[in-house]
Amino acid sequence: MAIIEVVKYDGPPGVFAWRYPNQELGTWTQLIVQESQEVILFKEGQALDSFSAGRHTLSTANIPILSNIINLPFGGKSPFTAEVWFINKLSSLDIKWGTSTPLQLQDPKFNIIVSVRAFGQFGIQIEDPRKFLLKLVGTLPTFDQDTLIKYYRGVLMSNINEIISSYIIHKKISVVEINAYAAEISKHIQEAITPSFREMGISLLNFYIDSINTPANDPAAMRIKEALAKKAEMDIIGYTYQQERSFDTLEGAAKNPGSSAAIMGSGLGMGIGMAGTMYETVNQISGNLRASHNNESPILQRACDKCNTLNSENARFCSGCGQSMLTTSSEKPIICSDCGHPIPPHAKFCEHCGDPHLPCPTCGKDYSLNAKSCSSCGSELPKPCKSCGELLDPKAKFCPSCGSSNVLKCTSCHHEVLPGQKFCIECGSTVS
User: Fold this and answer.
1) Which of 152, 307, 346, 387 is the least buried, fewest Cβ under 10 Å from its Cβ?
2) Are 248 and 263 members of one domain?
3) Where in the sequence is the domain holding 374, given as residue range(s)?
4) What pTM was computed for the model?
5) How far apart are CA 57 and CA 30, in angstroms?
6) Taking the CB of residue 289, how many other CB atoms lie within 10 A of it?
């Protein structure tokens, strides 16, 4: 029987518990325990003495419990058998986990069955080595991360499946939005599984979900992604799916004018106003095509002043917005102050010369930017702010855009000067 002189850790890295391979020991054997380690001696399945970091001599002075069992003599070398377990008490923060098979859940937003999987990592530390050995290790020579994940897979997966499913189904969160709740779900899972780890002498330091997603080849997930991409494209361009189908149908109707009325009457799922406007436009286009083919005069059209929808010349109301198309004789056209051409209502610039349309607040006549009073009614006109250029009411004392003062002041005494005043009434200085 061999006598072991020195016992120290010689196991693989990254394990939580390692058993020294030789069980034949003797008194005066030197036991070396590293920092962050703890050693526990086992005899016939019972956890006896424990040793912290440092060098220890296996004698009756150091292993009193063991000496009571086998009656070790004081002095000399008395052989005995015992298991030496080294426990790693360092924090291990990179233990990976993941769902073995995807979860089959119904997306509450799109009402479609999708496959959901999740993965992440957690960190642990051996809190009670004696309890850890008695509960988990047993007869295994080593206990590493893979063994821990294998043992706790049932506990992990049951809680992960339940909590993720409750978030998706009961809280009405779509699969495509679930990652936004990863931190909140991680916290709930950690609270749920912490008691199970503590029963085994393990302290659960943290628990993280790195991602909750769907498999790349899942047909349901691919359909959702394609639909969302199409919807995003429509939102950017500014139309809906029903409108896209209607545009395609109307494009075919414009190419075949004779069938436009039948197509419009078949119900395209559009709004009544939109359908009426498009129906009017298609009929006008097809009518002009027929007139051009038969050498007839084309149908005369005019645009609505409010929405610019094309209407027939004799239309009394706009087919797009319902605005009256009738004009009274009392209405006078607006004449551009720069070129003398008429300016359409609601226009901001002259169509002929591009001069800005600046209507007089009193009579509505167009005036030039440098004019101080209206040439038609004589009213004082808005003037630009000295700081930001915003047009201001003549009576305004401050600019509503930048807050600058609009009050004229004498350069000599800084007394307020009224508009049109040539001399200061306080000091008599000339107002520039």
Assistant:
1) 346
2) yes
3) 335-381
4) 0.48
5) 5
6) 14
